[in-house]
From TrEMBL:
InterPro entries: HIF_prolyl_hydroxylases, Oxoglu/Fe-dep_dioxygenase_dom, Pro_4_hyd_alph, Pro_4_hyd_alph_FE2OG_OXY. This is 2OG-Fe(II) oxygenase. Pfam families: 2OG-FeII_Oxy_3. It comes from the Bacteria. Residues 108-208 form the Fe2OG dioxygenase domain.
């Protein structure tokens, strides 16, 4: 007779454990080198390819039910990624995301069932005013995810800092290549400061139901 409980094929991942404990403690987590500079270069090329296909549009405020372009609030251009039509570079991206999601679901019972990601280009002079990532008519977004695709050597004077408005402090985060910021979508207000030099990223949400 076989064992009642087979050993579960589970290997603890120190990086994911760090992300989980950071979020539990402070509701956000910053990981430098989540993607290597080589991976960032590939993803940046892929962003430019999608842009050349003319796939980017002005970002809107709110979801499909409540769509208005408000330049005074955000000025980025976005392109929604489609995992079913992913190119090689995007597959690399989604493989990492899926590995993180499956770990979160196994260890935190977060029940992440859906995800959505878009590329974002913030042209010089644009910003995204202080906001929260959940919509009034949709609270499925649990974790927000941002990954920066800027060139190596990003300078503070380029602007475009992400500011997280925490209970007791404002956390300023530079959009360094390969850096990933994850935070609780329903709780953390945040802002992208005005950009002085084109700023590139992938932003996404891990969602329930
Ligand atoms: O790019 C960032 O640092 C944050 C972007 C953001 O807040 C959003 O797209 O909702
Ligand atoms: Fe946001």
């Amino acid at each position: 007779m076989g064992h009642l409980f087979e050993a579960i094929d589970f290997v603890e991942n120190p990086l994911y454990e760090k992300i989980i404990s950071d979020i539990a403690k402070q509701r956000f987590s910053i990981t430098d080198d989540f993607f290597s500079l080589e991976e960032v270069d590939l993803l940046r090329q892929s962003l430019f390819e999608r842009h050349a296909e003319d796939g980017f549009k002005k970002a809107a405020i709110g979801n499909k039910l409540n769509e208005t372009i408000v330049k005074s609030i955000r000025g980025d251009l976005i392109f929604w990624m489609d995992e079913t039509k992913a190119n090689t570079e995007e597959n690399l991206f989604f493989n990492k995301i899926n590995s993180l999601v499956s770990y979160l679901n196994k260890t935190c019972f977060l029940g992440i069932l859906h995800k959505e990601f878009h590329y974002a280009i913030y042209p010089k002079g644009t910003f995204y005013k202080k906001h929260i990532d959940t919509f009034q008519n949709d609270d499925r977004r649990k974790l927000s995810f941002v990954c920066y695709l800027n060139e190596d050597g990003w300078l503070p004077e380029n602007g475009g800092e992400l500011v997280l408005y925490l209970e007791h402090e404002e956390k300023i985060i530079y959009p360094l290549p390969g850096r990933v910021v994850i935070f609780e979508s329903q709780i953390i207000e945040h802002e992208v400061k005005p950009v002085n030099s084109e700023r590139l990223s992938i932003t996404g949400w891990l969602k329930t139901r």
